[in-house]
Structures are given as structure tokens and as C-alpha cells.
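Long-time lurker, finally posting.

We've been working with Helix-turn-helix domain-containing protein (Aquimarina spongiae) and I want a structural starting point before designing mutants. I don't trust myself to interpret raw outputs, so I'm hoping someone here can both generate the C-alpha cells and explain anything notable. Sequence follows.
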Amino acid sequence: MDFSKELLFLFSALGVCNGLVLAIYFFFFARPKHKSHIFLGFLLLFLSIRIGKSVFYYFNYDLAGVFVQIGLTACWLLGPFLYFYVIYATSKKEIKRPFWVYHTLGLILIALFVNLTYPWEEYRPLWQNYFIFGIHLQWLAYLVAAGIQLYSTFRRKEITTTSNGSFKVWILSIYFGNVIIWLAYNLSPYTSYIIGALTFTLIFYLLLLLILLTKRRKSLLLLDPPKYSKSTIESAEVERIVHVLGEVLKENQFFRDPNISLQKVARKIGIQPNKLSQVLNVNMNTSFPGILGTYRVEAAKKLIVENPEYSIESIGYECGFNSKSSFYSTFKKNTGMTPAMFKKKANI
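Top reply, 14 upvotes:
Generated this for you. Predicted structure of Helix-turn-helix domain-containing protein:
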């Protein structure tokens, strides 16, 4: 093997080895834990096996038939696991296990039957003329299905208005990377068989760069990443934060400040903003704007009753609302009536 071929072999094999390492990362170490990471790990594993077979077959045409069959069986599972990954990564609902268990079981049984009944060594023309074509056709069908799923996901209004841009770049890179690898293999009669392996190596390093250069990794890997980690705050600490929060908001009528923010209040309490946000959302079942609205509406109700000469609009500004519309909408959300209705009901 001359130097150029050695370099080609090294570059192709590097992608395979690193793909296996990245598969292990998604199996065991990717955070936050998510089912889609398991499917992505299997996708990378099968890609690495398929590409590894191509690399060794390209440089050793007499490769043992069992290794060829393992590589082609991995290729048989590429499309399904890309599709499963896309489904689980883009769905906000829990998906029942049989969806993928029975599906995968059927594909494995078909693969076992073909591999045991028609071994490569004895039926090489059958594999080269029919089975490989069928494998690539099935791969294409799943690529189309995954593409349709992505298209419908990113068309949804709730996704387009609050889309996770980094996740979109990530999953589209994985999808189109698979499309390019499929094209590389199916166009190899007009180019070179090793192009698929080289394409995988290139795409792998691009994906690795995305992971390494993204600061908020969980936003990259998930469409709707969990806001908080699974670690809970001790009940005694929650009680302390809730107590101090009440004192801070009441101190000098702090909630009346229209420029008040979660960060300012967290500094007053002496905790991190994300910890205060977790207490509000998880333990108090509200949000920072929600608790501010509660304090402001209560103050507004008191002013309406005690100062009937004040205009409703001035009371809203006095209580910390920065617009008439936000005062009316928050007041109605908390009381079920507008400030004018409340004033009339109070017989003022």
C-alpha cells in the first residue's frame, strides 16, 4: 500500500473510530438524559460499522463474507434508527415503546433470515444485484419518512414561533449528513467506493465541532430541553427562599418598580436566578411575572377600594404596570373581571 492509500485509509478509519466513541458518549454520558440519545447512539454505531466495512472492503476485496454481511446488516438498520431518532427528538409527547420495539424486532428477524439463508460467500451475485439494492431502497424510504417528520415538525406554529435554532441546525445536519452518505454510496459507481467513508468522516467532524463550540449543549441536542436539572431543592431551603421572597417584594413595595427583574430579586435574596426560577416554577407553580402580577393586582384592588377618586389607569401605573393593557389583562386573569367591573362591584 503506497503512502497516498495509507493516508486515505487512516483518514477514513479515523472517522469510524471516533464515530464509535461518540456513540458511546450518547449511550452513557450525554446530558440531559433523553431517549433520543439512545437512537442517535445506535445510528452512529451502525454508521461506524457500515463505514468500517466499506473501508476494509475497499482495501481488501477478499474480506471475509461474515464481515461484509455485518456491515450490510448495519446498513439495513441505518434508516430505521435515523427515523426513530427524529421521531423521539422532535416529539413533545411520550411515545409508546412498541412503536420501535416491534418495528426493530421485525427488521432484525428479516436480517437474520437473509443472512443465515443466503450467506455472502455462496450468494455474492444475489447480494450484489438484489439485496444491496433493496437495503439502499429501504434506507431511502426511511430518509423520506424522517424528512417528512422534520418538515411537519418545523412547520408547526408553536415550533416556528419559539424554535430552538441550535437544535434545528443540529438535527438537520444529522439528517442531511445521512442523505449525503446515501448519495455517496449510490453514486460510487460513477465516483469511488471510498467516497462514502470519506463523507462520513467529514460529516462526523462537523458534528463534533457543533458539540464542542456550543456553550448550551442541552439546547443543541434537544428541541425542548428541560429547564431545570433533576436535582431538587431541599424543602427547608424552599421555605426559606419563599419567606425571603415575600419580604423582598413587600419591602418598600418593591413590586411597584416597573423595571424589577428576576435577576434583581435573586441578588436581594442572595441566590442564583435559575434557583429562584426553579422555586417559582416547580415549588410554587407560578412564574416571576405571575407572582409580580399577584402582588400588583392585590395592591391595585386595595387602592381602588380606598381611593375611589383615583383613575383606574393611574392605579395601574402606581402598582408597577407599565401599560394600561398589561394592567387590564393581568387584573382580569387574577380576578376574572376588569378593574372597572371590580370597582363597580365594590359599589364605589
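Before you design anything, note these points.
The mean pLDDT is 83.
The chain has 16 helices and no strands.
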